[in-house]
């Protein structure tokens, strides 16, 4: 099977045998454009170029005939909005899930529809990632892009479109975009009528393991795949990452150290909460409480590119993050008095505040960039802890915690998170994240894998972090400062946004 994921900063792919053995994997970075504060855009054509590249690399590395691939699964950033014309070409750059520009349109939505009604229909409160506010923003500021649009689809839907020629999306993309009537598992079309947006803009809905089409001859010629290879609908990177880590039982919790910091908590009951996102698990009959911080690994890349350029430009093959980690290990827990709010692009769950911004508190002339780097790692850990505190408040106690995605390769970061949250944390070093879940989903969809439990044969825990109780106590006090900061600055963030706009 071939699994593909289009993330915020890179496109990744793996080829996996039915046994779960990874034959090859590859990744290709693409550019995130931040033209103004709170904006986040990407060119979907860069995703396709990246996909073509990683597929060719995976086929070359594995030395297998493309005809042996029996199914393709695709996941990605969710719910990024892509407007495409009848030929499948983007009419403008994609507006990412983390983009927080449409604050006026969010206000319109809240004034037009009662929050309680929105929550009853969608399982969500109004979020900065909702598509209706973004569509209204495009309508007001880039009307030609909307006029030319044939469909609005997600990021990974765009790759499926390029592969198959079919306009589809899955239930979770629709749900997180605030456009799904959860109780009926169908589009919430009334909200489009209120916003005066054409209903025909919405594509066909599919479930994650459903086959949505086949690789076209044109896509086969470009990628090296075999035409006619089945493609399944796939889903968001969070739930596919959870699948890849074996987070499939009630009370399992996944922490995703990605460009954004996400968690997925598995449950057999539908239990939406307005402070979180809510998804279908890819496994039928399972659900997921889902939280997401707008920035996580993105902060480390920002720090590397702006304050460690000599590391970012290193030509000796040295991983700059490993070097930063090694330096940060010498700094004690709490970064010697620095606390950072990681809200550099507003914040999603649980505070849902597009006006929130990043803050570094406690700087003195004694502190170095190493202190700030460690404080960034700790800030994400505090963000994870904030989500877990609310889970506990709701009566959900994780029985198992698993770390996934690229940032989890950092032993230091995993230990910091473990010390902050106070739970043991498993790690699977050979797990490539969402693409592995995509490949398994493809196997299910084409009937080559019969049981969802088979994922447990694919997942082998390689390391378990245990909390340091002394550090945990210190972090408990630092976390209290972290939470207090936002409450004190909330009005200032709003005022600052009004001034800067």
Structure description:
With 501 residues, the chain is of the alpha+beta class. Strands 18-19-17-16-22-23-24 form a 7-stranded mixed sheet. A 5-stranded mixed sheet has the order 3-2-1-5-15. Strands 4-7 form a two-stranded antiparallel ribbon. It starts with a strand and ends with a helix. It has 18 helices and 24 strands. The protein is globular. 40% of the residues lie in helices and 19% in strands. The model has no long low-confidence stretch (mean pLDDT 94). The protein has 3 domains: 237 residues, Nucleotidyltransferase, domain 5, CATH 3.30.420.40; 125 residues, ATPase, nucleotide binding domain (Nucleotidyltransferase, domain 5, 2-Layer Sandwich); 124 residues, ATPase, nucleotide binding domain (Nucleotidyltransferase, domain 5), CATH 3.30.420.
